[in-house]
Known about the structure:
This protein is an alpha+beta fold. The chain contains three helices and seven strands, in the order ββαβββββαα.
Amino acid sequence: MSERHESFRNTPSSRNNPWSHPVVVAQIPAAGMHVTFAADARERAALAEVAGLREVLEAKADFHLTHVRGGGIEARGHVSGLVGQECVVTLEPLESRIDEDVEVIFAEPDTAAAAKPRVDIDGEEPDPPELIVNGTIDLGRLATDILFLGIDPYPRKPGVAFEPAAEAASPEDHPFAALKVLQEPAGRGPKKSKKG
């Protein structure tokens, strides 16, 4: 997720916040807590409108929250969804499954720099912490961000490939046609047919 993560709160559509699920940091036990939630029909319709999708058939999130150094909260979990799109080749309706793992740190604005997540095993740069706002983290906003980032912008039905229209090749357009002309002996042109 690190390579492509761009916070949903920085996009124009964030004003709509179609799938909110706030959690008060002070209510998270010292041992951590598990949070699971799913978008209802109204939230799914709002998600589809914001994302420009035909429909959102399913949107679920599952997080385990733990306290980390500096007063931050680590959210590890999974976001899944099923969205209705159109095949970019045939324009037929199709359904696309989204499954994304999540590992994010939430931190107070003044301690965000000290609450960076550890470097991934593959050496990628970690994402900057999400902000704790008024003592609350919005897991729904995070799940929306991850769900939208998981959408395939060019969905195709299984077995369908984009093939440009084939044009009939002209013999004169052959790459060796000009070379053949150059190889003709000087003074010889095309043969003329004999009359009668």
